[in-house]
Amino acid sequence: MGAAVAAIHHGLFAWLQYHDLYGIICFVHPGIHMVVFHAIFVVAQTARVLATQASGLATLGGVSIDESVQENVEHTAQTMQAARQQQQQADELQQAISVFRLA
Length: 103
Prior knowledge:
Blueprint: H1 2-18, H2 32-54, E1 59-60, E2 63-64, H3 65-102
Antiparallel strand pairs: 1-2
């Protein structure tokens, strides 16, 4: 329930900022891509907390929890790298569009 409320909250505020309503500013570059980018960081932080809490626990289904968490952390790191690349491409596209509009 809390995750759903947080997701709606972030989406709503990004939408309000994108449409310049009520003077709300929460992202440097408003849009759904920033909400997703932010969510990736939240997932990574959660994985880190879970990894810390899970260290030293027994195995689950023949795979140690430490190994499973490590795989999740590595996957999250790869996802974050891909998100950073997509963010950079989105920023470059936004700059190109801005230059085109000024011309």
